[in-house]
Amino acid sequence: QCYEYVKGLENDDSKAAGRALNNSDFQSGKSMIEYLKKEGEEHPKLEKLREILNLEDDEKAIVFTEYRNSADIISEELNISGLNAVKFVGQQGDDGMTQKKQKEVLEAFDDGKFNVLVSTSIGEEGLDIPAVDYVIFYEPVASGIRDIQRAGRTGREESGKVFVLIAENTRDEGHYWSSHHKKNKMNEVLNELKNENKRPKPEKNKQKTLDGFDEESGLVIHADDRENSVAKELSRLDIKVRKNRLKVGDFVVSDRVAAERKTAADLVDSIVDNRLFDQLKKLQEFENPLIIVEGRDLYNHRDIHPNAIRGALSSVSIEYGIPILWSDGERDTAELLKSLAKRE
Q: What is the pTM of this model?
């Protein structure tokens, strides 16, 4: 997939693609990818996948992957290995499957003509997919709900197994732990709901006005010692600020919430020099990470195509599952942090 992405860039006439291709680090990575492709090297996940899918005659499995291109490669390699694998993708795009074709594939899988279904996210949804013995996540997902939807394809009538393939020191680790923490939180909420009827009913209190809500005290936010300007604004809002050098984020609101603060210019710079994605991976150590961006003028700071910026922002929200909050300045950022602290 990485190889095909690089080849796609070589056929892209945009300025952003040209800058990427002229970057020395990119050229070095491109040479390594082409060498590995020439030598026939494959991703170690494929070898592990074949090892897991040592299926008995009547056993079935679903392999979930995020990308259609990966679904093509995985199904092809599994078929070469002697399994009967079939790809299952959504309807959109030139390489999509029609509703009729989807139905035919699912019926064939249910009838045992195929024993491995290689599916993109379409297989998470409310389709009539038969229960299976194994569910394999080719990549972990950051969403707790999607994780549960995928794993729920096995273990319905009899016990099943779920495997998650994680590449060390990649965004896989961040996605896995993000999903793990979110599922734990969901379990906590469900347990609280179960026990709610056992608790004595609290006396009704008079609803707070906005002024009363604003008078709460005792809020504490941990701030990186380099964030002096916003820290001062927090102090003016009667927030206790504890300053030290933070390993993750610029502000830690609670054990669940951490925020990375960026100006619009800093956000663009961090996209160009790849700092942003390293920071995102670290932020996912928290259950509810977020990014606060001050200002909205993203497209006039560097000679970078707006589509590249939009793509990076989409990746933040979709691939990493991290929300972006927009702020008008330091005071507004402090107000946002105060609201987050109150909710915690």
A: 0.54
Q: Where are the domains of the chain?
A: 1-41, 42-186, 214-343
Q: What is the pLDDT of residues 210-232, one digit of tens each?
A: 444 444 457 899 999 999 999 99
CATH of 214-343, one of 3.30.1330.200, 1.10.10.10, 3.40.50.10130, 3.40.50.880: 3.40.50.10130
Amino acid at 59: E
Kindly report, residue by residue over 62-112, the tens digit of the pLDDT. Answer: 999 988 888 999 999 999 999 999 999 888 776 788 889 988 999 999 888
CA dist 238 and 219 (Å) reads 8
CATH of domain 42-186: 3.40.50.300
